[in-house]
UniProtKB/TrEMBL annotation:
Database matches in InterPro entries: DUF2933
Pfam families: DUF2933
Sorted UniProt keywords: Membrane, Transmembrane, Transmembrane helix
Protein name: DUF2933 domain-containing protein
Residue ranges crossing the lipid bilayer per the database entry: 21-41, 47-67
């Protein structure tokens, strides 16, 4: 509400209708994703099972790429005492 007792208006105003539309859109997207997953599992199950080893390799490589950024591996100078450096 504004100072004059009127609901907010304008392009950035959040109203109950805007919230309802956002929730409806999110539900529609979730149902569409669920339908796609069910379709893939029921009609293409053997193909998905055959792709699992490759997906696992990609997940492990991606995890190492992003999760090892804080470490200093390789030719970088390190102050880590576990590697015998002082």
């Amino acid at each position: 509400m504004n100072h004059d007792g009127q609901p907010p208006t304008g392009p950035g105003a959040v109203t109950a209708d805007n919230k309802r539309v956002k929730w409806f859109g999110a539900i529609v997207l979730a149902l569409a994703a669920l339908g796609l997953v069910l379709y893939l599992v029921t009609d293409h199950g053997p193909h998905l099972l055959a792709a699992l080893p490759y997906a696992g390799i990609i997940v492990v490589m991606t995890a190492h790429l992003f999760l090892h950024r804080g470490h200093s591996h390789g030719g970088h100078q390190s102050t880590d005492h576990r590697h015998g450096k002082t």
